[in-house]
Automatic annotation (TrEMBL):
Alphabetical keyword list: Copper, Electron transport, Heme, Iron, Membrane, Metal-binding, Mitochondrion, Mitochondrion inner membrane, Respiratory chain, Transmembrane, Transmembrane helix, Transport
Transmembrane intervals: 20-42, 54-77, 89-111, 123-149, 161-178, 199-225
Protein name, as recorded: Cytochrome c oxidase subunit 1
Gene: COX1
Keyword Membrane: yes
Role played: Component of the cytochrome c oxidase, the last enzyme in the mitochondrial electron transport chain which drives oxidative phosphorylation. The respiratory chain contains 3 multisubunit complexes succinate dehydrogenase (complex II, CII), ubiquinol-cytochrome c oxidoreductase (cytochrome b-c1 complex, complex III, CIII) and cytochrome c oxidase (complex IV, CIV), that cooperate to transfer electrons derived from NADH and succinate to molecular oxygen, creating an electrochemical gradient over the inner membrane that drives transmembrane transport and the ATP synthase.
Domain Cytochrome oxidase subunit I profile intervals: 1-264
Intracellular or extracellular location(s): Mitochondrion inner membrane
């Protein structure tokens, strides 16, 4: 998802290269390397000594720095370009950046070992990793399909349906997972089927949000089917011609190209 968002933000900005390219690459490698030494933040409740808790808390919080570099670069590339605000892919990019940042903030909260001991195995943790992981993977799939579908298939997608799909998805996602932060802060553990009656109405909202999210996934499949059956062929390309794939005639020919493209 990081690569997809970075690549598409670069294309939309029409710049010669991604903003802070070296910083983006360094941030990516930093996240990968730090990911190898933060495993114990899942084990703050097993009775580790104070030095171990302090080390793994600090390293976990440190991941926020390279992640922040990437978020700032994405926002800068989007804000410095003449955005097509009606484009659904822009809606998805902005939604991804905002919700991913919110999920990252809750991750910083959980990086503190003393707080994590209180919130461990609660619904707060479920809300955190769904905002970061589930949203990131789903948004990455949707954004990539929206962006490359016309090039691969040769038919355009209905922008009105895509905008409606974006709104439905974001509403369903937040309705499903946002209340879980409150559950966790109230001390409600995960993986329980019986809980206090005061949580019933919020649990109903979460269930409604899950149904809305499921509907949005089915709705997206319908949008793809509508694209194939409507017959609206792609006739032009406004994207950054600095990429070899954008200099070709859309849709791409089947199996192979008729001639080699010259890349300077």
């Amino acid at each position: 998802s990081f690569w997809i968002v970075s690549h598409i933000c670069h294309e939309i900005s029409n710049s010669s290269g991604p903003l802070g390219y070296s910083g983006m690459v360094l941030a990516m490698f930093s996240i990968v390397l730090l990911g190898f030494i933060v495993w114990a933040h899942h084990m703050f409740t097993v009775g580790m000594d104070l030095k171990s808790n302090t080390f793994f808390s600090a390293v976990t919080a440190l991941i926020g720095i390279p992640t922040g570099v990437k978020v700032i670069a994405w926002v800068s590339m989007l804000s410095s370009s003449g955005l097509y605000w009606s484009e659904p892919v822009v809606w998805w990019l902005i939604s991804f950046i905002i919700l991913f940042t919110l999920g990252g903030i809750t991750g910083l909260v959980l990086s503190c070992s003393s707080i994590d001991i209180v919130l461990h195995d609660s619904w707060f943790v479920v809300a955190h990793f769904h905002y970061v992981l589930s949203l990131g993977s789903y948004s990455g799939v949707v954004i990539s399909v929206i962006w490359w579908w016309p090039m691969i298939v040769g038919y355009s997608l209905d922008n009105s349906l895509l905008r409606a799909h974006c709104l439905i998805s974001i509403i369903g996602f937040n309705l499903c997972f946002a209340p879980m932060h409150y559950f966790g802060m109230c001390g409600l553990p995960r993986r329980v089927c019986v809980y206090d009656h005061s949580f019933y109405w919020l649990s109903g909202l979460c269930s409604a949000g899950s149904f809305i999210s499921s509907f949005s996934a089915c709705f997206f499949i319908f949008i793809l089917w509508d694209s194939l059956t409507s017959g609206n062929k792609v006739v032009g390309n406004w994207r950054n011609e600095g990429f070899a794939v954008n200099s070709m005639v859309w849709p791409l020919t089947y199996h192979t190209l008729l001639h080699c493209n010259v890349v300077n």
